[in-house]
Design goal:
By secondary structure, this protein is an alpha/beta fold. The protein contains 12 helices and 7 strands. The chain has helices spanning 30-33, 35-39, 43-50, 54-59, 65-75, 82-92, 98-109, 122-131, 144-147, 154-164, 178-186, 199-205; strands spanning 11-14, 24-25, 28-29, 113-118, 140-143, 171-175, 190-193. Strands 5-4-1-6-7 form a 5-stranded parallel beta sheet, sandwiched between helices. A two-stranded antiparallel sheet has the order 2-3. β6, α11 (178-186) and β7 (190-193) form a beta-alpha-beta unit. It is globular and about 55 Å long.
Length: 210
């Protein structure tokens, strides 16, 4: 988890789920833990439909999440509940990590830029940006659905470099997926593999620890 050269970092690109947002515990997302109890719908059926390649297409802007969920509702006696399901998903998974955001704030105070680098599709990205207010925490959101490229594709990182006009060595990715860390490092980025509860280690690695 060592950061190669903290003094060279000009921009930190933060992953969202599991890093800026504390909604993942032991690999399980918050919304899924109470989905069946609260909505009376089958999590197994919904997840099988959603994650059998469909969400991956939506994630890269190749399909519409609303249409994918609507397709499932019409086949599973849940007609007209698309908005309810998506609202439940998005709001239940809206758990900003105060400890990570404190690091973001500290970095801002040192003149370091902060952006989000997430594999979210467009509808949830809009929710994150505006309803959750992350547009106030980061200067830009780089989302797979908007870019039509997803991590760990190296083109994802190249796009950010180009948009920010930044040298890869000045960019730091903080992400909880090892394959994304490896891809970023392959582009010449610095990277920190974030795991549950590694806030203190990250702060120390960035030279922010007291």
């Amino acid at each position: 988890m060592t950061i190669r050269d903290p003094s060279a970092i000009q921009v930190v690109a933060w992953d969202f789920d599991g890093v800026l947002n504390r909604n993942v515990q032991n690999g399980v997302f918050a919304w899924s833990r109470t989905f069946e109890r609260d909505l009376g719908l089958s999590l197994h059926s919904f997840s099988r439909h959603l994650f059998d390649g469909r969400f991956q297409k939506a994630m890269k802007g190749e399909a519409c999440l609303i249409e994918i969920v609507t397709e499932w509702t019409e086949k599973n006696a849940a007609h007209g509940r698309t908005d309810e399901i998506l609202d439940y998903w998005f709001t239940r998974d809206a758990l900003p990590d105060a400890d990570t955001l404190a690091i973001v704030t500290a970095l801002k105070g040192k003149g370091v830029r902060n952006v989000m680098a997430t594999n979210n599709e467009v509808h949830r990205t809009n929710f994150i940006e505006h309803q959750m207010g992350f547009n106030l925490h980061v200067e830009r959101i780089f989302a797979a659905g908007r870019m039509k490229i997803a991590k760990p594709d190296t083109s994802y990182f190249a796009h950010i470099e180009e948009e920010l006009q930044a040298d890869p060595s000045t960019l730091l990715l903080v992400d909880d997926m090892h394959e994304n860390i490896l891809a970023a490092r392959g582009r010449g980025w610095q990277a920190f593999h974030f795991t549950e509860g590694s806030h203190a280690a990250l702060a120390e690695a960035l030279g922010l620890a007291a």
